[in-house]
UniProtKB/TrEMBL annotation:
SUPFAM superfamilies linked: Nucleotidyltransferase substrate binding subunit/domain
Organism encoding this protein: Candidatus Aphodosoma intestinipullorum
Organism taxonomic ancestry: Bacteria, Pseudomonadati, Bacteroidota, Bacteroidia, Bacteroidales
Protein name: HEPN domain-containing protein
Domain HEPN: 9-120
InterPro entries named in the record: HEPN_dom
Length: 128
C-alpha cells in the first residue's frame, strides 16, 4: 500500500483510539471532535488512494467524499452521519458554539457516535 495512504490510515486509527479514550474519561466534546478527525483522515486516505493529487487541506467531510468520488457509493445513512459530524470540527473549537454543543453531548450520544464512526471508517478501509 502507498505510504501516503498508510499515513492517513494510521492517523485515523490514532484519532479513533483517542475518541474512545475521551469517552472513557467523560470528555464528550473531544469525543465528537476526534470522531470528526477520524473520518476526515480516513477520507483523506481514500483520496490518496484514488487521486494523484494530495488531499485538500480542508475539514469538510462532505467535500472530501464528493471530490474523491466516494460519496457515489455511500448510503443515505452514511451521508447523514457525515452531515452530523461536519460541524463538530468547528463547534468544538469556538466558545460561541462550545457551550451549546457540550450540553447536547451525552455519554449515550457519544457512544453511538463512536459506533457510527467505526462503521464508516471500516467501510472506507474496505475500499482501500
Amino acid at each position: 500500500m502507498d505510504s501516503k495512504v498508510t499515513y492517513w490510515i494510521e492517523m485515523s486509527d490514532y484519532d479513533f483510539d483517542t475518541a474512545k479514550a475521551m469517552l472513557d474519561t467523560g470528555r464528550y466534546l473531544y469525543v465528537a471532535f476526534m470522531c470528526h478527525q477520524t473520518v476526515e483522515k480516513i477520507l483523506k486516505a481514500y483520496w490518496s488512494k484514488v487521486l494523484d493529487e494530495p488531499p485538500l487541506k480542508i475539514h469538510s467531510l462532505s467535500r472530501l467524499a464528493e471530490k474523491s468520488g466516494l460519496d457515489k457509493g455511500m448510503s443515505e445513512e452514511q451521508m447523514d452521519f457525515i452531515d452530523e459530524l461536519e460541524p463538530l470540527n468547528i463547534e468544538a473549537r469556538y466558545p460561541s458554539y462550545k457551550e451549546r454543543l457540550m450540553k447536547s453531548l451525552t455519554s449515550d450520544r457519544c457512544a453511538k457516535m463512536i459506533g457510527q464512526t467505526d462503521e464508516l471508517r471500516s467501510w472506507i478501509k474496505n475500499r482501500l
